[in-house]
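pinning this so it doesn't scroll away 📌
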Amino acid sequence: MYIGELASLTGATPKAIRHYEKLGLLPVAKRKGNYRIYEEIDVQSVKMIRLAQAVGFSLSELYDLSALKYKNNRFPVEVAQQLIQKKNQQIIEQKKALNRLQEDLKQLEDEIIQTYITHKIPA
């Protein structure tokens, strides 16, 4: 299939697909003249890349996973699970950091109210 059909099947743009190929997330496509030719495995790869990006993975985080998939001609489920667990831990840490920030904002608000109301300092 040509790049336009791959784009249509995956929701990715041809530009994004060429970018994935340039980064090594997709193997260099076979050619028929000047046209890139893709296979069904590429459809699944682009779908996986787009879904992974949607849940917070960067393209660089997906490189090893994609490389293993094409090298072994099978999806490395164990590696994917490790990446997902690592991303989940990062999200937990981000949530903790956001909660601390929210607490700090509340403390700042309380201090401002206390200072300006108690001491009747003009704003």
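📌 and the second one:
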Amino acid sequence: MPKLPPPPDMALPLQPPLEPMLAKGAKKLPKGDAWIYEPKWDGFRVIVFRDGDALYLQSRGKKPLLRYFPELEEPLLEALPERCIVDGELVIARDGELNFDALQMRLHPADSRIAMLAETSPAAFVAFDVIALGDTDLCTTPFVQRREILEQILEGCVPPIHITAATTDRAVAADWFERFEGAGLDGVIAKGMAAGYEPGKRTMVKVKHDRTVDCVVAGFRWHKHGPGELVGSLILALFNDDGRMQQIGVAASFSKAKRAELKDVLAPWMEDALDDHPWAEWMQEEAHGERRPGQQSRWSAGKSLKWEPLRLGLVAEVGYNHFDRGRLRHPAHFKRWRPDKPHTDCTFGQVEVAPPMEIQEIFDA
């Protein structure tokens, strides 16, 4: 990636980079009349700083994003007040649903590629909070008032600029939780009406979909701080309708003690692992159309993806919250081993698929 410029100095109450306010996970939506509920968008978190003609888009990781989404500069300057800081999400909708893969593809080093994707795969900005307006720092202003200000400053905005849906009715939010998944959304966020904006703190509440699936443990990677001693991640796979085994992601959240224990658990499965392994040829980096362990990609940023194969037969139940286009969006959480289940029963048929719905329904909400 090219070297990106540092944040500009702006005549605003707060300067970039700024830590975004975060959310802590919960199993259920909080009850009571002190909450405002919003859909949880599945895109790139972005804080937008505007000072006159100067516009700066900051990622959650405090990196500049405007270079990769030039098509949003004019709409944002048209929609936003002269001087403000607005929190939101960058998303791309295709065929009526959010497409995170298309969003990731926008982070490209070549200017020509960026220009082409801006034309063929344009992004949208969904605003859900306002942090500053003019000379006023709104961080101590209750969220219910910030929401009113956001609606006022973006009244009449048109695509690709949107204001997120919001409700104080928990039953409506629960309905969103069930229905909106089919359009690619992640869950529901609950924000305290009286809460201020606290950068870097987990003061909001997020409720995400939590499901389980039994997977073939097809291999593993050693941990970078303990190769040969500590297991870093388990490589998970399912069989498709043609009987071919496809990698769907990894399980990676283990304590140091568990990583050491996994070495002993996996050791017997390493013996003669490649004899009948369907991915044996990938050890020689032969090209295939499916995702595969060991293949370097530009998203890995030089990270080693070397993997160790395991003899088929080891099955793990893992928890996940989002399954998209044949893979897990985020690393899965290991639940337990399933010695009672044949690995051939680990198919895509287990995966619960949310009914599709048009993303426009959510914008209209």
